[in-house]
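Dear Dr. H.,

I hope your travels went smoothly. While you were away I took the liberty of generating a structure for the chain from your last submission, since the lab meeting agenda had it listed for discussion. I wanted you to have the full record in hand beforehand rather than looking at slides cold. The sequence, exactly as received, is reproduced here:
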Amino acid sequence: MDYLAATANKKYLMFISQNYSYAILRPLQREILARGGEVRWFLFGDEVNPNFLHQDEIRLLSVDELKDWRPDIVYVPGNVVPDFIPGKKVAVFHGFNSGKRMNKGVDNHFNIRGCFDLYCTQGPTTTTTFLELAQQHGFFKVKETGWPTLDPYFSEIENNPYKNHDDNRKTLLICSTFSKRLSLAPKLYEQIKAYSEQGKWRILVQFHPKMPSEIVEQYKALQNDNLTFVETDNVLPLLQAADVMLCDTSSILLMFILQRKPVVTFCNHGAGEHLVDITDADKVAEAIDYALSKPAELMAKIEHFCQQLHPYQDGLSSQRVLAASNELLLSNPALKPKPRNFIRNFKMRKELNYWRW
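The corresponding predicted structure, in token form, is as follows:
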């Protein structure tokens, strides 16, 4: 059966709670609309800005409105979704597994919260574990599809605002997670300040949206002809514009390296051979120069890593996610009941102020 063709006249909900989720789901929305499906957006929580919605995107403003619309499929680039909204729940992930969050020795990327009917995985490094978990739990399916976010990534983005064709310097992108324990931002501030004054590289800085405001303001104050601080809901043009990345343990480095561009990390949690990891702040500049030289041994290790993380470079991951979702909906496989999640659903009801059954 042509599961892509089955999209016509079906309803697809984008359930988001962070601003970066817009860019994650828009390639998938484009495929749905092109095939005659309907799309609506539901914004959960106070960390997602409705101003990032496009004029032609339709938002459902309440749970009652959502339930009246009755979506067939609900896409979630996050960890949880209420079980009291209709539709098959599909996890599409908000990033790659960076391995930075561990709970009692278990990687939280593989924490099964009992919310989803289908996990659409990004590549072999995550698919294998999720298939084992599906066998163990029995209440969800797994399909390796690639990540919809990256569909536009494998073709040149036109009119990229972060490129400067009049500047011949190499572009350094600095990204950091918000965790005080893991973040490079406070630890390398003096070094980055010095780079911004030296002007050896053109520097772009972008932080996780949960970065403490005082650190954000510190870096904004560094802006000059050599350094630009960027706030955006779509990091793909930013990643394309850079030649090398300086990062810590943020999962954004995994998106960057898929371009087959080198990444320098500072005190990375569990760094592999595909990264140029350093622990001495005084050696950051030397490591960046080494990475920019693209040594053959390093580039070979990067290629091997990318094949395991996300082997798809065809820009068709959204189509695979959509086909897998429709297949789940139409085949309606026999699965065990999901856990009731009483406490989690109570908390979400309270946040949404929704008490109807």
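Two observations you may find useful: The longest strand covers residues 11-16. The chain has a mean pLDDT of 93.

With kind regards,
E. W.
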